[in-house]
Design goal:
The chain contains no helices and eleven strands. By secondary structure, it is an all-beta fold. Strands 1-2-3-10-5-8 form a six-stranded antiparallel β-sheet, with no helix packed on it. The protein has a three-stranded antiparallel β-sheet with strand order 7-6-9, with no helix packed on it. Strands 4-11 form a two-stranded antiparallel sheet.
């Protein structure tokens, strides 16, 4: 794999650590007060392991708190969102499993940054 590249987003950033034909691994950092869009994926599932901070996860309409050292599974086609309501950066490792990992495999239902549609 080539050099790791940090991709900036309105809520923070992510770094792709590895990408294989059936898996992709990212480290995602969400700044305090930031949150991802409420979204789903048609071609992949995700497994999140919180490394730092506390994640407020909305998964198919149900709220869950995931703390450092804990994890959560996001099945394919599940609507999900991760938010950082804390005062420190939220850092988690995301393992994507499936057949396709492009950023265009995102269906957004709500977004704080005008990216729905």
């Amino acid at each position: 794999m080539s050099a790791r590249v940090t991709e900036e987003r309105p809520w923070g950033h992510f770094v792709v650590l590895d990408e294989q034909p059936n898996a992709k691994v990212k480290v995602i950092t969400i700044r305090p007060g930031g949150r991802l869009s409420y979204q789903s994926h048609e071609r992949r599932s995700e497994h999140w392991v919180v490394v730092q901070g506390t994640a407020e996860v909305l998964l198919d309409g149900e709220s869950r708190t995931v703390r450092a050292g804990e994890s959560i599974d996001v099945p394919t086609r599940s609507r999900h969102r991760c938010a950082n309501d804390g005062e420190v950066d939220l850092v988690f490792v995301e393992v994507q499993l499936g057949e396709y990992f492009g950023e265009d495999d995102i269906v957004r239902y709500e977004d704080d940054y005008g990216r729905v549609g």
